[in-house]
Structures are given as structure tokens and as C-alpha cells.
């Protein structure tokens, strides 16, 4: 198991390096320097700016310097906000995005698994059809539509919940988390229903029943363990989608999270910020995929043997 | 129905006719397909049938709720909402189809070559797919729009370049699977040429999954374009797509909710329909691999 994790981490390193290199040179290849579009600045100022952002060194030197700084966890200063570093902006925005995402995952897992399990136990009854139809709606309703609709309903017309903000008024975290989580709740409901149905028809479940185990024990201990695998392999890549979703949700609800900062940086052409954030997001997503894979192997003895034997 | 089925069996039915028969029984898929056909026809005919000029403003009118003159109301500049949604459909659908075609071509070629050639070439090609899979592409597309400015061409290429990975995996898996089967061996022993085998035996068997996955790719592409346009990084004004219309609707939803609701409705219904048709095709073309 440890060997497997070690191998996966080793495999992730070149991928991360590719990301950093590609992003760095793409940003450097952007037509026009970051300050070209701005008002004319004097030669002195330009020189000091170039020095500050390490633009007067040869390109390979800039790249090596950037890598070196990254290794020390330093993303450099922001192009747009002269007195802030990218690290500060990430430190300010990421905890908010993380909290939002965690709530969304929690909502997705609780609602999704509950409906999925109930639907599979009552397959082909109304307790199956109704939630599965709703989940189809949840998948097809993009959060850029769902979010504003929820605001319109519960925020403006009914007036039950705040329409925007984060941690400013009580209850203002409910709508954003619900918006972000709903799509994943819908997916998880469908996936867990499908895998539960498959597992429930297997021989070892019949054996468990024949042994006279309680149905609660069969469902939650025997069946769920097997049925969770597809859900977990869905969760890894879902984190990437969750991040993209947070861009929309943070824009709709005016939440000061990293997603919104990233989109703003894209508008402001804040090159170092975009560079730093892209790398930060990429590493985060690669790590999440890795963790999902490790959990998957840990839960599934068959994969564990494969992992020990080296794929 | 059973009589029809019997007749079909006696005549000996092709894969296509069989699938069509099964698809016809799937009500959601049919409703979805009808909706899509109507939508596509309207989008194609928009320049001739749109009730107003795309750019024509009526500042005196401003934002007005749906009325007899403007069925879906007008936006803050007094532009007809129905007209704007119709033109937006052209953009959104075009991005959906063109970017999916890009993904289709790259994915099928990549997967087919990897699966057919096999060996080291296959291992290398699939390793590249694995690496690309791990990258956060949504973020890369945002990066690309920042660097190169957002244009339709970039949207096509960037979105197409993201979506081919799964297609490549599916096609490779299918090709590998079919290559090993006995009827291919039989075809080889009968002395059929390589091209004949690919055309008569390999392609028809890979076609099903390709069609299914293509129908399921289109909605995710449309969603990706709407996502970018919603954030203001996709289609630029004066052009509009569903995403940018929704984004404009969100800005003023408190006063003028119809500006949000109608474009949102069209986008959601389209995604619904495409998913239903995709699911229906999956059940029809590959009855063994039904959803559950």
C-alpha cells in the first residue's frame, strides 16, 4: 500500500512539472507585455518594474527562478495589485472556496447516497422513479441557472434567505452550498443506485441473507462497501468540476473566494496571479485524483493485490 | 408491435433498423429529439424568421415584461428577448456541434490508431491521454482566453481539444475488444483485405459507442461554452450566447426576472433533451449496456 502511494506520488511529479512549464511559457507567450496596454511610463519606472517582476532576465533564467521560488512556496507578487503577493490573495480566497466546496460535498454525499440507497431498495416503485426524475433535472440544470433561480425563489420572492454574501448574515451560506452541491448530489444518487442494484444481486448478499443477518447490516455493511467504489472514483474528477462550479457560484452570490479572484484576475490580465492560481488549482486537482485512487485501492482488495504486484 | 417485430426478424434486421425500432419506444428520447429538431430548424432560419432585428434597440421601451409585441419581453436596452435568444441559440448550438466534431475527429483517430496498432505505440498514446486527463482543463481554457483573447475559433479548438480524451479511451477499448473476437479471425482467414475488415466488421461495431458518446458530449460542450460566456470569457458582445444572456439576466433578475428565466429555460431544456436522446441511443444501440 505504501509502495503504491509512493509510486503514484512519483508519477504525479512529472505531470505537475508539465503543468507548471506549459502554464509559465503560455503566459510568457501572451502578446504584448503586461504593462504595454497601460499608460506610457518613463524608462526608469519600466526598468524598476521589470526588475521587480524579474522580466529583464533571459527567459530560461526567469523560468528557473520561478521554479525555485515555487519550491519555496512563493508565487511572487501580483501584477495588478502592486502591494499584494499572489500568496496573500490565495491565502485570503482559498479558505472560503474550500469551506464552500466542503459544504457542497457534504450535501452531495448525504442527499445523494440517501436517495440512491432508498431508490435501489425500492427499485421500480414511486420511491425510485420520483427521486431519479428529480436527479435527472439536477444534472441538466446548470448551476448558473439553478443558483439565480434559488435566489429568486428563496431570497427575493419568499425572503427566507440572504441573496448574497458569505458569513455576513446568518444563513447566507445555505444557498451557495446547495447550488454547488445539487449537481453532484444528483450524480451520486444515480451512481449509487446503479451500483447498489448490482451489488444487491450478488451471491455474497444472498449468503448474508441466508445467514440471517439483519437487513440494516446487509445494506450498510455488506452492500454499501461494494457499492461505494463507483461513487469514490466519481468524486476524484468531480473535485475539478466543483472548482469550476465554484467560479460560477462565487460570482452569482458575490462570495470573496479564490474562484472569483481567479475570474477577476482573468479580466484584469493579472498574469502572475493567473499563473500562480492555475498551478495551485492544477496541483490541488492532481492531489485529489491521487487521494481518490488511493482510497479506491484501499477499499477494494482486488485492486490492492494488483497495486502490490505493480499494476 | 409484436407483429412488426416478427416481420422485422423474418426480414432479417440490420443494426440500424433494430435500433430505430427500440428508440421509437423510448418516449423521453423521442420528445427530446423532436425538441432538438425544432430548435435546430429555428436556429438555422433565425435571420429570416426572427421577429425583430438583432441590434434594434428601443430605449423608450426599456425592459418590458412579455407582451403581444414582444413574446418574451425586452431587455434593458429595449431589445427583443426572443430575437436575442434565437440568435444566441445559433452561437451556442454551433459551438456545441463544431467543438464536438473537433473532439470526435481527434478522439476517434487517436483511439483507433492506438487500439489497432497496439503494443508500444498504444502504451505511449494512452499514457499521454492519462497525463492530459489529470490536467484541469476548464482552468486552462480560461488561461487561453486570457492570453489569446476570446474568439469563436479559440472556443471551438480549446473545447474540442478538452473533450476528445474520453472518446479516445472508448474507441480504443472497443477496437481492442473487437480485434480479439472470432469473427475478425474468421474474416482474416477468409482472405478479406485489411480495409474490408475495418469497413465491414470493425467500424459498424465501434459506431454505436461513438454515436452514443457524441450525443453525450454535445451537452457538456454547450455547458462549457455557457460557463465561459457566463463568466464573460466566452462569446463577446454584441454577439450573445445562452451563457451571456443568462449572465445579463442574473444582473437584473430582481427587477426583470424574465430576462433570466427564458434563456435559462432554453439552455436547460436543450441539455435535458440531449441527455435523453443520448440515453435513448445507448439503450437502443447497445441493449446489453443499459444504464443500470
Walk me through the topology.
The complex is a heterodimer of chains A (311) and B (292).
Chain A: H1 2-28, H2 43-52, H3 59-71, H4 86-121, H5 126-140, H6 143-157, H7 174-200, H8 203-210, H9 215-252, H10 258-268, H11 271-299, H12 301-309
Helix pairs in contact in A: 1-11, 4-5, 4-7, 4-9, 4-10, 4-11, 5-7, 6-7, 6-9, 7-9, 8-9, 9-10, 9-11, 10-11, 11-12
Chain B: H1 2-11, H2 15-24, H3 27-49, H4 81-117, H5 119-133, H6 137-148, H7 152-179, H8 182-189, H9 194-231, H10 242-251, H11 258-285
Q: How is this structure best described in words?
A:
The complex is a heterodimer of chains A (311) and B (292). With 311 residues, chain A is mainly alpha-helical. Chain A is built from twelve helices and no strands. In chain A, α4 (86-121) crosses α7, α4 (86-121) packs across α10 (258-268) and α9 packs parallel to α10. Chain A starts with a helix and ends with a helix. In chain A, 36% of the residues are buried. The model of chain A has no long low-confidence stretch (mean pLDDT 81). Chain B has 292 residues and is mainly α. Chain B has a single domain, classed as MetI-like fold, CATH 1.10.3720.10. Chain B is built from eleven helices and no strands. In chain B, α3 (27-49) packs across α4 (81-117) and α9 (194-231) runs antiparallel to α11 (258-285). Classes of the chains: A mainly alpha (311), B mainly alpha (292). Chain A binds chain B through residues 12, 14-15, 18-19, 23, 26-27, 29-31, 136-137, 139-142, 144-145, 148-149, 151-152, 156, 193-194, 197-198, 240-241, 243-244, 247-248, 251-252, 262-263, 266-267, 269, 274, 277-278, 281-282, 285-286, 289, and chain B through 131, 134-136, 138-140, 142-148, 219, 223, 226-227, 230-233, 243, 246-247, 249-250, 253-254, 257, 260-261, 264, 267-268, 271-272, 275, 291-292.
Amino acid at each position: 500500500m505504501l509502495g503504491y502511494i509512493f509510486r503514484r506520488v512519483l508519477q504525479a511529479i512529472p505531470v505537475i512539472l508539465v503543468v507548471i512549464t506549459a502554464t509559465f511559457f503560455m503566459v510568457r507567450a501572451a502578446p504584448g507585455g503586461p504593462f504595454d496596454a497601460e499608460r506610457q511610463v518613463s524608462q526608469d519606472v519600466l526598468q524598476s518594474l521589470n526588475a521587480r517582476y524579474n522580466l529583464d532576465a533571459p527567459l530560461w533564467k526567469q523560468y528557473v527562478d520561478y521554479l525555485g521560488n515555487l519550491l519555496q512556496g512563493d508565487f511572487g507578487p501580483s501584477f495588478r495589485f502592486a502591494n499584494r503577493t499572489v500568496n496573500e490573495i490565495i491565502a485570503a480566497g482559498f479558505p472560503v472556496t474550500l469551506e464552500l466546496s466542503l459544504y457542497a460535498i457534504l450535501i452531495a454525499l448525504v442527499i445523494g447516497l440517501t436517495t440512491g440507497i432508498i431508490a435501489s431498495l425500492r427499485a421500480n416503485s414511486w420511491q425510485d422513479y420520483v427521486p431519479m426524475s428529480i436527479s435527472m433535472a439536477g444534472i441538466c440544470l446548470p448551476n448558473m441557472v439553478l443558483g439565480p433561480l434559488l435566489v429568486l425563489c428563496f431570497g427575493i420572492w419568499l425572503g427566507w434567505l440572504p441573496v448574497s454574501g458569505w458569513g455576513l448574515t446568518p444563513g447566507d451560506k445555505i444557498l451557495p452550498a446547495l447550488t454547488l452541491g445539487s449537481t453532484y448530489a444528483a450524480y451520486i444518487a444515480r451512481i449509487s443506485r446503479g451500483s447498489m442494484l448490482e451489488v444487491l444481486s450478488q451471491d455474497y448478499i444472498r449468503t448474508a441473507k441466508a445467514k440471517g443477518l439483519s437487513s440494516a447490516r446487509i445494506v450498510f455493511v455488506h452492500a454499501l462497501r461494494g457499492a461505494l467504489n463507483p461513487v469514490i472514483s466519481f468524486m476524484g474528477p468531480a473535485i475539478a468540476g466543483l472548482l469550476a462550479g465554484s467560479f460560477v457560484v462565487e460570482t452569482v452570490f458575490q462570495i470573496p473566494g479564490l474562484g472569483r479572484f481567479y475570474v477577476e484576475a482573468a479580466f484584469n490580465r493579472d498574469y502572475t496571479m493567473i499563473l500562480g492560481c492555475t498551478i495551485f488549482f492544477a496541483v490541488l486537482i492532481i492531489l485529489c485524483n491521487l487521494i481518490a485512487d488511493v482510497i479506491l485501492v484501499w477499499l477494494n482488495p482486488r485492486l490492492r493485490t494488483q497495486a502490490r504486484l505493480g499494476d | 408491435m409484436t407483429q412488426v417485430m416478427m416481420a422485422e426478424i423474418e426480414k432479417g434486421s440490420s443494426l440500424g433498423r433494430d435500433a430505430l425500432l427500440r428508440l421509437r419506444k423510448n418516449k423521453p428520447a423521442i420528445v427530446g429529439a423532436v425538441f432538438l429538431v425544432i430548435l435546430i430548424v429555428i436556429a438555422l432560419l433565425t435571420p429570416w424568421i426572427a421577429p425583430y432585428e438583432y441590434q434594434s434597440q428601443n430605449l423608450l421601451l426599456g425592459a418590458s415584461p412579455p407582451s403581444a409585441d414582444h413574446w418574451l419581453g425586452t431587455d434593458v436596452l429595449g431589445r427583443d428577448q426572443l430575437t436575442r435568444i434565437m440568435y444566441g441559440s445559433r452561437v451556442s448550438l454551433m459551438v456545441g456541434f463544431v467543438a464536438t466534431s473537433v473532439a470526435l475527429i481527434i478522439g476517434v483517430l487517436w483511439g483507433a490508431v492506438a487500439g489497432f496498432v497496439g503494443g508500444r505505440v498504444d502504451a505511449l498514446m494512452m499514457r499521454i491521454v492519462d497525463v492530459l486527463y489529470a490536467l484541469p482543463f476548464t482552468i486552462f481554457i480560461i488561461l487561453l482566453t486570457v492570453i489569446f483573447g476570446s474568439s469563436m475559433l479559440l472556443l471551438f479548438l480549446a473545447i474540442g481539444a478538452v473533450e476528445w480524451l474520453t472518446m479516445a479511451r472508448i474507441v480504443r477499448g472497443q477496437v481492442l475488444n473487437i480485434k480479439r473476437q472470432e469473427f475478425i479471425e474468421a474474416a482474416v482467414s477468409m482472405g478479406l483485405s485489411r480495409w474490408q475488415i475495418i469497413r465491414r466488421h470493425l467500424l459498424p461495431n465501434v459506431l454505436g459507442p461513438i454515436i452514443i458518446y457524441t450525443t453525450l458530449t454535445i451537452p457538456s460542450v454547450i455547458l462549457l461554452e455557457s460557463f465561459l460566456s457566463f463568466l464573460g470569457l466566452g462569446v463577446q458582445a454584441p454577439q450573445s450566447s445562452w451563457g451571456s444572456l443568462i449572465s445579463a439576466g442574473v444582473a437584473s433578475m430582481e427587477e426583470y426576472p424574465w430576462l433570466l428565466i427564458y434563456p435559462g429555460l432554453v439552455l436547460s431544456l436543450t441539455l435535458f433533451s440531449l441527455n435523453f436522446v443520448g440515453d435513448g441511443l445507448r439503450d437502443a444501440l447497445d441493449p446489453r449496456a443499459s444504464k443500470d
